[in-house]
Amino acid sequence: MIKLTVNGASHELDIDSSMPLLYALRDELHLHGAKFGCGLGQCGACTVIVGDRAVFSCLVPVASIGSRPVRTIESLGTSDRPGPLQKAFIDHQAAQCGYCIAGMIMRAQALLEANAHPTEAELRAHMEPNLCRCGTHMRILAAIRSVAGIPGAVDKAETSKEGAR
């Protein structure tokens, strides 16, 4: 029996202790925000927060979690009431296909919880492991900048709104 605390709720799962956290989240707990992308820790689509760190859930066996809490995109908000990062991603049109977005948001959430006002260099270094194959990296960064209060945050989203008037 594996015990996990996910999004504030305790769960006892009768699963193999070597099962990747991603499969426990998706198949056992029916939390589908974290996506299977590569299975190799090279894309970040499966990123969740364990304790206070962003991790690739495809690489983390459930046995290694211990008592550390796990948070997924589902813990940040809903479609009716999105959290600040989710709202910023919507406002900046940061998603094209959307496949990477939950992982991007969770990696950004971990950064902003550790450092509410990172520098541009810290932001880019922290987000570097996650990939967006559609190429919306600049919009993703703009969304995170707007929440973090990094100068230049009111850039593309605001200018495109004004240009549309």
UniProtKB/TrEMBL annotation:
Domain 2Fe-2S ferredoxin-type, chain residue ranges per copy: 1-76
Domain of life: Bacteria
UniProt KW keywords: 2Fe-2S, Iron, Iron-sulfur, Metal-binding, Oxidoreductase
Protein name in UniProt: (2Fe-2S)-binding protein
CDD domains assigned to the protein according to its UniProt record, in alphabetical order: fer2
Cross-referenced InterPro entries: 2Fe-2S-bd, 2Fe-2S-bd_dom_sf, 2Fe-2S_ferredoxin-like_sf, 2Fe-2S_ferredoxin-type, 2Fe2S_fd_BS, Beta-grasp_dom_sf, Diverse_Oxidoreductases
Organism (species): Cupriavidus basilensis
Coiled-coil annotated residue ranges, if any: none
Pfam families registered for this protein in UniProt: Fer2, Fer2_2
